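Quick illustration, no need to memorize.
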Amino acid sequence: MATQIRVEPETVNPLDVSRADMWREDRWQQPMAQLRAESPIYYCDDSKFGPYWSVTTYKPIQHIEALPKIFSSSWEYGGITVAGDGIEHLQEGEIPMPMFIAMDPPQHTAQRRTVAPAFGPSEIERMRADTLRRTSEVLDSLPIGETFDWVEKLSIELTTQMLAILFDFPFEERHKLTAWSDALGDIESFNTLEERQARLAIAFEMGAAFKELWDRKAQNPGTHDLISIMLQSDAMSHMSHEEFMGNLILLIVGGNDTTRNSMSAYAYGLHLFPEERAKLEANHDPELAVNAMHEIIRWQTPLAHMRRTATEDTELFGHQIKKRDKIALWYASANRDESIFPDGDRIIVDRENARRHLAFGYGIHRCVGARVAELQLTALISEMQRRRLRVNVVGEPDRVNACFVHGYRHLPVVLEKY
């Protein structure tokens, strides 16, 4: 992810929805609603990350995602976040780290096909009983009637356990995965040379740890873990060190942040809409739990945007897009597009079309691990129902300071029985 950070513009554009403070302070909903109503394809001519197009409604995002030859994800052009500026704009303290989500076909296709079977239906069924067991154990370890941090004690713990299992990473060292994810998924960590050097040091620390695991698996491969699967693949067995690190960042950040922040949104969102929480408390039908899972993911949208780069001059619904223009696809906004999701700012656990959300993307880059995230969140909802446990939020969340990962750092809660 090559990133060229600029000085903040002197005059703040209220429709520059890439500003970190807007997400940290949870103020993004109104400007996104304004963009959807007045200018769903909007050119922001100045921002911290340079000029970019904002696409904020559902159908244009689907259209763009369906045309990967025209709207590229390639790391060479800047990759998948609005921060990237391509390999020609690398700064001191930065190296490119290609990952398959930031590649175009055919390279993307070959690498995605390598890891996709690890997240297929049969693997999800194999994981189901263990996921329910681990969810039960974590819930049973939490205090009733005492304040604790839901993010730390539940969301991080459950997602980090799953990541360690997927990689066959040393279980006792699994919290390193959280630290690496937090640091390497932060698009606000490129501002100074010191920040870039610190980020690079963390990336190399992660790479060294996984290189040891890679070497062990080369001697004694496993059956289901991601490292063994990569090793046995023509597309990924001979990756460069930078590409190896890039794909690790993708799988760790993707597997960690999506599920972690959906689990936190389960607690925070249902606290905001107690009438919807009451539906889940009164009706333990597994189908309702599954639908609520999709609705919570829609409402939260754990990755607020993905970015594409135009490979040629083109027209987009009447707008002239120039070659190499950045295009930010605001999934968080499209998931509240009133033409698709009426009353989209609310959680409605029995919403009929909750499954249509774009939180996992659309087209060839749709999240490869979506089923794992769905399994984990559904397990949490059903196990909370089985225990007749309710989460009460007792303080405002501390949110991530960025426009990419849309999530929570801390969330104080108290559990009670109902």
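The longest strand covers residues 305-310.
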